[in-house]
Specification:
alpha/beta; binds zinc ion; two-stranded antiparallel ribbon; 4-stranded mixed sheet
């Protein structure tokens, strides 16, 4: 990041603050945010101010995007980058909110050259190089998933190319250790799912290692102790990558 961007961010922080009542309202019910240690919470608020200054929210299907919605999404989006910095979300600006799940048209050419088209119903999508699209209903009301952390985790994963469950690892991290922990957890999960066992995590995680990374990132922040108990090796790797130990806050 250049000095100009640095200067702009400093100015933004000097000029803006988040109203306490708005912050409380926007983070109400988000225990993984209200659990933060006070210095972490202050740091998160500063990141949220910068996030709101640099990202652009828009509503689709006539949804009115309120300040509380913006702050709630920004707070959840900034939690994973609390110790990484906002530059990890650079290269795109848009966040599009739909009132509920939205439909996207998919098409795929099969090996016989036949074009298949179908509709997907989604609660969220992270477009490579483009916006993040979210269902506000899913973000606000679905306790089973955290669509915000999920989609922003995909953005981190995409920084190293096509999403594959391996975001850019920090110097000193061991790629083999990451892959070992991720693959062991992913394969064990798929295996348990196939045998009809209770999998705890959203079954959608079995789709692809990239989905598993996004889903385990939700769990890492929302249910850190259970994540650490079930997936100790992967928890350690996530702790190194996110530079946070959410289980210590609970
Ligand atoms: Zn996903």
């Amino acid at each position: 990041m250049g000095w100009l961007a640095n200067w702009r961010r400093k100015r933004v922080l000097e000029k803006h603050r988040i109203d306490d009542a708005l912050w409380l309202h926007a983070t109400k019910g988000l225990s993984f945010i209200t659990n933060l240690f006070p210095p972490e919470e202050e740091k998160l608020k500063r990141l949220v101010i910068l996030f709101l200054a640099e990202k652009q929210f828009s509503g689709a299907h006539a949804i009115e995007v309120t300040d509380a919605m913006r702050v709630s999404i920004a707070a959840q989006a900034c939690l994973p980058i609390l110790e990484l910095g906002l530059d990890w979300y650079s290269g795109w600006t848009g966040i599009v909110l739909y009132p509920g799940d939205f439909r996207v048209r998919r098409s795929e050419l099969d090996e016989d050259g036949v074009l298949h088209e179908w509709d997907d119903e989604l609660a969220g999508e992270a477009m490579p190089g483009g916006p993040i699209v979210l269902s506000w209903d899913a973000a606000a009301n679905d306790p089973e998933i955290n669509v915000v952390i999920h989609e922003f985790a995909h953005k981190l994963d995409m920084l190293s190319g096509a999403p594959n469950g391996v975001p850019p690892l920090h110097a000193g991290m061991d790629r083999r250790a990451w892959l070992g922990a991720l693959n062991e957890a992913f394969e064990g999960f798929c295996d348990a799912l196939e045998r009809g066992k209770d999998t705890w995590l959203d079954p959608y995680a079995a789709e692809h290692p990239a989905e598993f990374f996004a889903v385990i990132s939700e769990a890492f922040f929302q249910e850190p102790k259970e994540t650490r108990r079930r997936y100790p090796d992967l928890y350690d790797q996530l702790k190194l990558f996110y530079r946070q130990d959410p289980a210590s806050r609970v």
